[in-house]
Amino acid sequence: MYSRQYIPYSVLLFLAFLMIHEVQGQAQINQFDAEGRRHGPWEKYYEGTQQLRYTGTFNHGVEVGVFKYFCASCGDQAVVIRNFDSNPGSCAVTYYTNQGQIVAQGRMQDQKRVGLWTTYHKGGHSVMSKEFYKDDLLEGTKETYYPDGTLAETCTYIKGERQGVCRYFGPGGQLIKSFTYEDDQLHGPAEFFDLSGTLERSGFYHRDRKSGVWKTFVDGKVVKEEHFNPNKQ
């Protein structure tokens, strides 16, 4: 004989509460405040797909906390993570490959790079370069490294342009060439060395063109001289 199962009233109330809470939780995503500003947790998807584009939280139109950004084929692997702090528009940023390997990290202020930025060689295990930014332009000394950490290049930037001496080193740490820049153009003395550190060639540049006397050396002695007119090249 069929017997109706009795469900206590308290259980029904609890189940109803859970359903209402779930619906309310879903309704709180992608909301606006009274002034039309994004507020609370937000999620965006690539059009016509179930692939997340970004997820994060707004406080009356201001990004707060952690935002994760995804490519169109990344699944749940974020390719950019921004962690916003108490200073509006300021955040720590980390870039990743689709496989989750770190590519670069630094800070941004109002969508512009500021301070130290570090990039990594393929695989994300060793530093490839360290550079400094001001208002999204290189400012200060940039250093580039071989995968084993040996210094490969050092150069100074002012407002995004190379200024002064840039030095380039071989895998063993030896200086192999040195250029002088002005306003991001080769302008001034230049020197080239062999892998033992012996000077092989030297000369001058004038606005990216060879100028004056260029000398070639063998065993420390001049074996060839060439004369260049920068206006005739």
Overview of this structure, please?
With 233 residues, this protein is mostly beta strands. Helices cover 8% and strands 55% of the residues. The chain contains one helix and 20 strands. It has one helix at residues 9-27; strands at 31-32, 38-45, 52-59, 62-69, 80-84, 90-96, 102-109, 112-120, 127-134, 137-138, 140-145, 151-158, 161-162, 164-169, 175-182, 185-186, 188-193, 199-206, 209-218, 221-228.
Annotation, overall tally of beta strands:
20
What's the overall geometry? Answer: elongated
Query: Helix share of residues?
Result: under 10%
Whole-number total of structural domains: 2
- Average pLDDT metric: 91
**How much strand?**
over 45%
Predict the CATH topology of the largest domain: Histone H3 K4-specific methyltransferase SET7/9 N-terminal domain
Determine the number of helices (DSSP H or I, runs of at least 4 residues): 1
List keywords for this structure.
20-stranded antiparallel sheet; single chain; 1 helix; 2 domains; Histone H3 K4-specific methyltransferase SET7/9 N-terminal domain; 233 residues; elongated
In short:
The protein has one helix spanning 9-27, and strands at 31-32, 38-45, 52-59, 62-69, 80-84, 90-96, 102-109, 112-120, 127-134, 137-138, 140-145, 151-158, 161-162, 164-169, 175-182, 185-186, 188-193, 199-206, 209-218, 221-228. The protein has 233 residues and is mainly beta.
Provide the fold topology.
Blueprint: H1 9-27, E1 31-32, E2 38-45, E3 52-59, E4 62-69, E5 80-84, E6 90-96, E7 102-109, E8 112-120, E9 127-134, E10 137-138, E11 140-145, E12 151-158, E13 161-162, E14 164-169, E15 175-182, E16 185-186, E17 188-193, E18 199-206, E19 209-218, E20 221-228
